[in-house]
Design goal:
alpha/beta; disordered N terminus; binds zinc ion
Length: 534
């Protein structure tokens, strides 16, 4: 077939510009940072640990080498205080009470006591099943309507019905939103039943590290679970025990829930009794903040944020004899990208109108805590932050042909990244698995809550074979010691991903307009008060 000359020229010029655009990264300098951050010496970079501090010193050195300016509170550092809670399991017990008879639940095997909520020393209350346990006013959806949960512990099936769009469902499943609803309904605790269809890691691995401390920000303004007395998660294999005598089965709930169908609401025939003891200690860590200054006299006081979490989960129970949870992909990969990006702007300077703010947050694995603190107490004026591009575990484990963009349809950042990716031959798609709640499961969510248009992106599979590689990665390596530097990684995919991020940062830094939420985006509501104040 004959090709028209004009088409040929167009194709040629496209190839040239694409080639020029992909020249900033080789994958290797990025990987070298990952190798440092995920080395056994850094002991998994747990929040507030020696290993995390070493990772922070390394990052500060890289920022200085790249000529980035300190924009924290003390130099590059913004201190953050935490309270750490560790369950003392030998002094804890859980039981269900049926017709006055106690039936013990085995900790670890049947259930896990969450310390994200500070448990009361002793609780006993009836259980009531409230489906997904959601209240979504925008959709006139209310799992609590007509159900009396006052003084009771609610039992929920994790997930959401299909009538609730993904972003909305994710939003209302966050701890803050959930406990608001529970408090106003008068419930005192929550039992979560895992949806086997959206389980990221097997129960055995969840249970393995149940004694690992949880953390919360040590400032009264962030107490989201006030009034909550107990939160537990039950093994799907043991969940049937709760349903016996209720006229319903867990099996029936799972069958409905896997297709996101409506769920029934009903009292269970049992009460839950819990005794708990928790050791509480104080921990300090920090976010790191660095600036690549813009040059426009006015716009340089506006900031495009590139964020990633530097912390991981530290040292835990051994798996195959390995106790160090290195977090190479989660999130050595994103942190390394931030450092590599800083270096790339030094090596290949670009005229930037707005400034770029590089943030390496702490406490992500503890519940997005470092970013929550930063978004509430930014080290630059709050209204000057125009966008957040967050990088968390972007998984360059297959060639980059398809890019999943969380928040693709929420703001015009999505349109910008679509165009950039397409020019590099990469197709973009919205989150294909809304059930996993990824849009609210990393640090971009705290920027969103403060009105800032945000995105997070990940390499996606482009064939069933590649889909299996991702599935296996989650099952075997996600939050396991084998997420280390001895795993296959595609350096070309990483380089191409970095190229897309760089082009997006430049686009936002130099665009005439700040990014905006789409008129129909649910998340636009958080931006409204800011707009009114302008
Ligand atoms: Zn993680």
């Amino acid at each position: 077939m004959k090709m028209k000359i004009s088409t040929l020229l167009l194709a040629l010029s496209w190839t040239i510009s694409a080639a020029a655009q992909t020249s900033h990264f080789d994958g290797q300098t990025w990987w070298n940072h990952v190798k440092f951050l995920a080395d056994d010496k850094l002991e998994g970079r747990d929040t507030g640990s020696r290993g995390e501090r070493e990772a922070q010193s390394y990052a500060v050195k890289q920022f200085k080498n790249a000529g980035a300016e300190p924009t924290g509170v003390h130099g590059f550092y913004q201190p953050v205080k935490f309270v750490s809670r560790q369950i003392v399991e030998k002094d804890c017990s859980l039981a269900i009470i049926r017709d006055g008879k106690r039936e013990a639940l085995t900790l670890g095997e049947d259930a896990i006591i969450s310390t994200r909520v500070m448990p009361a020393p002793e609780v006993e209350a009836p259980l009531v099943f409230v489906g997904y346990g959601l209240k979504v006013p925008e959709k006139n959806y209310d799992d609590f309507a007509g159900v009396d949960v006052r003084g009771k512990i609610i039992v929920i099936f994790a997930g959401s019905p299909s009538e609730i769009p993904g972003a909305l469902a994710s939003h209302y499943q966050t701890a803050a939103e959930r406990w608001k609803v529970l408090r106003s309904a008068g419930a005192i605790g929550m039992v979560s039943l895992i949806n086997p269809a959206s389980m990221d890691i097997p129960w055995s691995r969840m249970a393995l590290n149940r004694a690992h401390p949880s953390m919360d920000l040590d400032y009264p303004e962030f107490n989201e679970t006030e009034g909550a007395k107990i939160a537990i998660t039950v093994n799907p294999m043991s969940a049937e025990k709760l349903f016996a005598g209720s006229g319903h089965t867990f099996e029936e709930i799972v069958a409905l829930g896997k297709d996101r169908k409506p769920l029934p609401h009903f009292p269970l025939a049992v009460s839950l009794a819990a005794k708990t003891r928790v050791d509480v200690t104080k921990i300090e860590s920090a976010n790191l903040v660095a600036k690549l200054p813009g040059s426009d006299p006015t716009l340089k006081d506006e900031y495009v944020v590139l964020s990633a979490h530097l912390d991981h989960v530290g040292i835990g129970e051994p798996i195959n004899g390995d106790r160090i949870y290195n977090g190479a992909m989660d999130n050595g990969s994103g942190s390394a990208l931030v450092l590599d990006m800083a270096a790339s702007f030094k090596k290949n300077p670009e005229m930037l109108r707005r400034s770029i703010l590089l943030i390496l947050v702490t406490g992500e694995e503890k519940g997005l805590l470092g970013s929550k603190y930063f978004a509430a107490h930014p080290t630059v004026p709050p209204k000057s932050i125009v966008a957040d591009v967050n990088v968390d575990m972007f998984l360059p484990i297959v060639p980059l042909k398809v890019l999943t963009v969380m928040g693709l349809d929420e703001s015009d950042l999505g349109d910008r990244v679509r165009e950039i990716a397409q020019s590099l031959g990469v197709r973009v798609q919205p989150d294909p698995e809304p059930l996993r709640n990824l849009f609210v499961r990393s640090d971009q969510y705290n920027f969103i809550r403060h009105g800032v248009p945000s995105l997070a992106m990940g390499v996606a599979p482009s064939s069933p074979e590649e889909a299996k590689i991702f599935k296996d990665w989650l099952t075997q390596r996600y939050h396991a010691p084998s997420d280390d530097v001895n795993q296959p990684v595609d350096l070309a995919a990483a380089a191409k991903y970095e190229e897309i991020v760089r082009a997006l940062l430049i686009n936002v830094a130099n665009g005439d307009h700040r990014p905006e939420w789409k008129p129909d985006s649910f998340f636009r509501r958080y931006a409204e008060p800011v707009k009114m104040g302008q």
